[in-house]
Write a structure and sequence with these properties.
- The protein is an alpha/beta fold.
- The chain has a single domain, classed as Alpha-Beta Barrel (TIM Barrel), CATH 3.20.20.
- The protein is 33% helix and 18% strand.
- Strands 1-2-5-6-7-8-9-10 form an eight-stranded mixed β-sheet. A two-stranded parallel ribbon has the order 3-4. The protein has a two-stranded antiparallel ribbon with strand order 11-12.
- Helix 5 packs parallel to helix 6 and helix 9 packs across helix 10.
- The protein binds iron/sulfur cluster.
- The site of iron/sulfur cluster (SF4) has 10 residues, from loops.
Length: 320
């Protein structure tokens, strides 16, 4: 796809952690130093730690400005999307430019694997909130769940997160993604807790499978076990609750390709699409039916609920 056809914003996404989140995509699908078994984007196609300016900052900022000019209603502007945003070597500059355009708080969703690099820590210190992951207490569990690039070790990741905490005055929301029968045993939880004590985040977000995953053996943790683990993590911990769907009005003119851009970054139900983009469920259904018949999206089921996501050839699309 030529650069001129690429769209760098998507949504707003209905986020369980962030309400309505205007996504900013800084890397092509799907470039990441990890290949998590629970990833909702599917398998990593390029596993790398090499940082580079994947897209020109001006092109990214033009799309953010366009979304804001269209009256987008978002609680956060979120660096996330088709892979790991800290792989974009100009992410600090992107955050600076977004903050010149809007007072909406800027969040970076990151796996945290590159926070060992002082340049990455400096860049992320410009954000209002940084939300890294820590899903494992041991190297073996880290390898099993996150399948990182061979140069990344869990001990170094924890060191990087702890250093970032010392340097950063914004808020750190640490996510722990829990998988049934994998990282919920007491011994593993205790190791994760000891790492978190060093990192000292402002909040601990406990999450589990709610959408289709890269591997079909990544299973949701039952509610009673989530509650027990939350209690053991103490006051800072909360379970990421399902997004509360609500009727929303928007001055943003929604088009079929806005729906496709959203589904290129996240599998969504009809309600997710309607709530995220601020359209009636029937209108969302009309776009979904059209995109299905064109073969641009596909349906999968998670706990018998239909989710829609863009087919691989339809990632990173630009609205018409
Ligand atoms: S969940 Fe995040 S860190 Fe893991 S593979 Fe997917 S994009 Fe990368």
């Amino acid at each position: 796809m030529p650069e001129s056809d690429r769209k760098h914003t998507f949504g707003p996404v209905p986020s369980r952690r962030l309400g309505r989140s205007l996504g900013v995509d800084l890397v092509p699908f799907k470039i990441c130093p990890y290949d998590c078994i629970y990833c909702q984007l599917g398998s990593t196609t390029t596993k790398t730690v090499e940082r580079c300016p994947y897209f020109p900052v001006e092109a990214v900022i033009a799309d953010v400005k366009d979304a804001l000019d269209r009256g987008v209603d978002a609680d956060y502007v979120t660096m996330s999307g088709s892979g790991e945003p800290t792989l974009h070597s100009e992410i600090g500059c992107v955050i600076d430019e977004v903050k010149k355009l809007t007072d909406i708080p800027v969040v970076v969703l990151t796996n945290g694997g590159l926070l060992t690099d002082p340049d990455v820590r400096r860049a992320l210190s410009k954000a209002d909130i940084v939300a890294p992951d820590l899903d494992a207490g041991s190297e073996a569990m880290f390898s099993y769940i996150n399948r990182p690039h061979p140069s990344i070790l869990l001990d170094n990741v924890v060191d990087g997160l702890a250093k970032f905490r010392e340097e950063y005055s914004g808020r750190i929301w640490l996510e722990v993604f829990l998988l049934a029968g994998v990282n919920t045993a007491e011994a593993e939880i205790e190791k994760i807790k000891s790492h978190i004590e060093r990192i000292n985040p402002d909040e601990i977000h406990l999450n589990t499978v709610a959408r289709p995953t890269a591997e079909d053996y990544a299973w949701r943790v039952p509610d009673d076990i989530m509650l027990r683990i939350r209690d053991s993590f103490g006051d800072k911990a909360k379970i990421v609750s399902p997004f509360k769907h609500k009727e929303l009005s928007t001055s943003q003119a929604v088009k079929k390709d806005d729906v496709l851009a959203l589904l290129a970054r996240r599998p969504c139900t009809l309600e997710d699409i309607a709530s995220g983009l601020g359209v009636h469920r029937n209108e969302a259904g009309k776009y979904v039916a059209a995109l299905l018949s064109e073969g641009r999206i596909a349906e999968t089921r998670q706990n018998r609920i239909p989710y829609y996501s863009a087919t691989v050839d339809n990632r990173n699309v630009k609205e018409t």
